[in-house]
Amino acid sequence: MPVSATNSKLIYDALKECDIRLVSALPETWLVHLIRLADEDPEMILVRLAKEEEAVGISAGAHFAGVKSAMLMQNHGFLASINGIVSFAHLYKIPLLMLISYRGSLGERDPWQTQGGNVTEPLLHALRIPYFFLDASDTVRKRIRQAQTLAESSLQPVALLLARDLMWEE
Amino acid sequence: MLRLDCLRSVYSELESCLVVTIMGAVAAELQSLGHRPNFFYLQHAMGLASSTGLGLALCLPEQRVIVFDGDGSLLMNLGSLSTMARYRPRKLLHIVFDNESLLSVGGFPTATSTGTDLEGIARSSGIPLVSTVRNVEKFKAAVTDSMQGSELTTIIAKVEAKGPAAYVTDLSLLENRFQFRRHIQSLKRPVR
User: Fold this and answer.
1) CATH class for domain B3-187?
2) ipTM beyond 0.95?
């Protein structure tokens, strides 16, 4: 599978450096290595979800408990989480670090991913969610640290879009 | 059985717990008995109270966590039962007040009014201990039993579709949220 194991490890190590101790996830192709790394790490609480919106509540609970968390999801999972983001994270000022695989963008071969790709950034704009790209290995560590810092200081969701150039090798 | 009587019957036992409620009647009635800093009322995001309790319970495994859920909210996030069952935090107690109604928006009947069985769904999702109670004595006994044990529990409490006169209280959402987190952080300080 041409998902980049090397860059997945870079991302995972950067999350650990930010003291992330809980990761929630719903599997998708680009996230397989990240989920495996979390599963194999005895220091990490991995929560495998039925649907991504649950992650908003789980991360809020973790925040109340004083534990830093991250959410791994596909952009369609972000779409499925929007009510939770607005009516919990925004309403109650909950920091969320959302790592969203940006499917359906340039180079996408799966027809079923393409509509989600069209609306991901417009929706992030509409929701006033600050977002940045993870698209090159040399900036992964810094951007994850900066996104986590902003989420904590602003008490709001911050998104990182995992780009094909980083996640896929072919 | 009235939800308010259920809440009153266990109110004194909530002091040592972290409590998460759904919006509407549950939040207003618990506040009417007396707000405490260890109570968090999720006044929207229907379905996510159980997920919030799960997050708390996974991060604070020694802490008793109680979620007061409702049939309308749980039906919006049935997957939460399977996620809770997957991780089975031993000190998480999930109480579902089932009044077969979306009461606060005018009393529209939910699917539990036409036969959907939340006890069966919880059991089949893998929740280790599940029961249904129909009077206050049994409700109190079920809650007490769960708090003395150490197994993830869901209690379905069948209650009447009656609620408080008003749903908006004078506790602001953000005040509640910051107070709740501060309370939890204060529990972690070493006792001298």
Assistant:
1) alpha beta
2) yes
